């Protein structure tokens, strides 16, 4: 597959795309069937933007930080992609259904939303290689590691 260029200005939001967890998520994402995607904790929008460029649609991205949502909107515009952006706390608010969910956030919030995902597959990251995330109703089908970090692909049982 040809490389897909994504231009990101993180501003005051988290996520330049250079962190190992982001690269691992992208590696897992490229191999997934195209369809709807939800990016939980989108930060600068790098994963949502890459997904849109890879042909996922519609792409919804949410974050609980209004600055992150603003920066993600600016980055989506700079990359010529359309995202549905929402300000939301994923640990307590209802999450929209999607074919694929990507969540590159810390382990604690991932555990808080683990039983609330409405998707066929979830790509999770933001935790160390030694950490194990269990998602109720899912089986982990693949794990990638780099620089002590991990990313997992979970598929609905």
Describe the protein.
The protein is of the alpha/beta class. The protein has a single domain (20-156), classed as Vaccinia Virus protein VP39 (Rossmann fold, 3-Layer(aba) Sandwich). The protein contains 4 helices and 7 strands. It has a 7-stranded mixed β-sheet, covered by helices on one side. Helix 1 (20-30) packs parallel to helix 2 (46-54). The radius of gyration is 14 Å and the shape is globular. Residues 8-15 have low confidence and may be disordered.
SS-based structural class?
Answer: alpha/beta
Main sheet: which strands, in order across? 3-2-1-4-5-7-6
Low-confidence stretches: 8-15
CATH topology: Rossmann fold
Q: What pattern of helices and strands is seen along the backbone? A: HEHEHEEHEEE
The number of E-state strands comes to 7
Rg is: 14 Å
The coarse silhouette is: globular
Number of domains: 1
Round the mean pLDDT to the nearest integer and report it: 90
What share of residues are in beta strands? 25-35%
What is the second-level CATH architecture? Answer: 3-Layer(aba) Sandwich
Helix content: 25-40%
Report how far the terminal alpha carbons are from each other.
29 Å
Number of helices: 4
- The CATH C-level name is Alpha Beta
Query: The biggest beta sheet, please?
Result: 7 strands, mixed
């Amino acid at each position: 597959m040809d490389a897909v260029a994504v231009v990101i200005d993180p501003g005051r939001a988290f996520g330049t795309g250079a962190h190992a967890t982001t690269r691992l998520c992208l590696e897992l994402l490229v191999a997934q069937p195209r369809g709807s995607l939800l990016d939980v904790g989108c930060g600068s929008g790098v994963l949502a933007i890459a997904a849109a460029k890879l042909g996922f649609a519609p792409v919804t991205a949410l974050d609980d930080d209004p600055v992150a949502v603003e920066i993600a909107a600016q980055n989506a515009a700079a990359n010529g992609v359309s995202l549905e952006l929402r300000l939301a706390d994923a640990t307590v608010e209802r999450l929209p259904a999607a074919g694929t969910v990507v969540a590159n956030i810390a382990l604690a919030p991932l555990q808080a939303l683990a039983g609330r995902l409405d998707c066929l597959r979830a790509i999770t990251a933001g935790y160390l290689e030694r950490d194990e995330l269990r998602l109720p109703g899912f089986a982990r089908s693949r794990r990638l590691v780099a620089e002590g970090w991990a990313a997992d692909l979970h598929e609905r049982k």
